[in-house]
Amino acid sequence: MSNNVQGAGVRPAQWSSRFAFIMAAVGSAVGLGNIWKFPYITGENGGGAFVLVYLACIAVIGLPLMMAEVMLGRRGGQSPIGTMAQVAADEGRSRSWVGIGFMATLASFLILTFYSVIAGWTMPYILSAASGEFGGIAAKDSDALFGGLLASPGQLLLWHSVFMGLTVLVSAGGVRHGLERAVTKLMPALFVLLLILVGYGMTSGHFGEAAAFLFRPDFSALTAEAVLVALGHAFFTLSLASGAMMAYGAYLKKEVPIARTSVVVALMDTGVALLAGLAIFPIVFANGLEPGAGPGLIFVTLPVAFGQMPGGSFFATLFFVLLLFAAWTSSISLLESLVSYLNEKGVSRVKAAIGGGLVAWLVGITTVLSLNEWSGFTPLDMFARFEGKTLFDLYDYLTANIMMPLGAFFTALFVGWKMKPAHSAAELGGWHRVWFPVIRYLSPIALLIVFYFNLW
Ligand code: PFF
């Protein structure tokens, strides 16, 4: 398989097989969103009802949108921006639809700026795990360890820099080089390790409580904002409305069935998130920790579990290494929209990756600081919705809860109303009959309802 993505106007090299695409797409989808974000936002939003809404968002909006984005990517065959320009022209529609591509590229870039900081946390955890520091650690000490990391801008900056460097390295070489091999080995290993952690959770005596928390919906705990968070997370976790799936779709061969392949990717992604929840919440309850503790949830809970397990240092090291790799295969796809766009504009891949990575790294420093020195800097306090949100919180909110739902809405409008159904049918085959009414009516209406309740 060639790792050479060519410049303007030339159709890029393609994935070697359907399997390669699945692995790249799963590599993009499965990341911090599943293992770090899903458990903590589930904890913050009261559990079961939130999980149910999240699953509904995946099924009714996320999955059909993934099919739409991969299809658009394959038809356009370029960066998300180039693809939208191309497809809009092919359909005889206004050039303004290219805005979908621009917003997606901006969203993925903004996500990358903080994603790299969080991914960086895995590295000191690998070192602590390997040195046996988690052996028998109590929950309050684990909490203090995590607090110490956040309080140190120097450490955070160091690991943020290393992680961004790793991302640029792969991106500069072409995303498909090395990615295929790495992902096919690492994703299954991560899956097995999560199963081991779930098995451990079963012995904790609190598994039932955790399962009830995750799967017994209590709708009185559900707010309109929680629905928006669940929706935003459905896009975030599936790498939608941020160009990644469109960019990867551009490298997809004609013969590959888009609908079935998307179903596999969405199922794997959802499976990993639910397993992560089942691994983490028994530990939370067994140790009297707070489910709504926020972004530190897995970094505080998992060391406690590993610390009590036979062979814990080994498993803990392996786990954080795998989490690092899962984040890496996602971050590469976060940079891809921008790099492929710049590449089309004549900038070499290497320069585009280094330039894009450098700016994302710089902006990422504001996330580093918002975890410590600037933790009191909450610039949008005048709006009730943004009250108390640091810069990091704002980047997260802006991308997942505003840009992605909007991008998804316009994408659904485009494929549902502006594109000739014969064109989408040619890409989606038999699935088109089900997909089309969903993306034309159900997805946009569901999105409008969520917007409505959040605005009022
Ligand atoms: N899906 C990734 C995760 O769950 O960690 C995050 C992500 C990757 C979002 C790529 C968006 C994207 F384009």
Automatic annotation (TrEMBL):
InterPro entries found in the cross-reference section: Na/ntran_symport, SNS_sf, YocR/YhdH-like
Superkingdom in the source lineage: Bacteria
A GO CC term assigned to this protein in UniProt: membrane
Record has Signal as a keyword: no
Transmembrane segments: 19-36, 48-68, 97-118, 156-175, 187-207, 227-251, 263-285, 305-329, 350-374, 394-417, 438-455
Swiss-Prot/TrEMBL keywords: Membrane, Symport, Transmembrane, Transmembrane helix, Transport
Stored Pfam families: SNF
GO molecular-function term, one example from the UniProt record: symporter activity
Location(s), subcellular: Membrane
Recorded topology in the membrane: Multi-pass membrane protein
Broad class of the protein's primary localization: membrane
NCBIfam families on file: Na_transp (NF037979)
PANTHER family linked: TRANSPORTER (PTHR42948:SF1)
Similarity-based family: Belongs to the sodium:neurotransmitter symporter (SNF) (TC 2.A.22) family.
Protein's name according to its UniProt entry: Transporter
Species of the source: Oceanimonas doudoroffii
Species lineage: Bacteria, Pseudomonadati, Pseudomonadota, Gammaproteobacteria, Aeromonadales
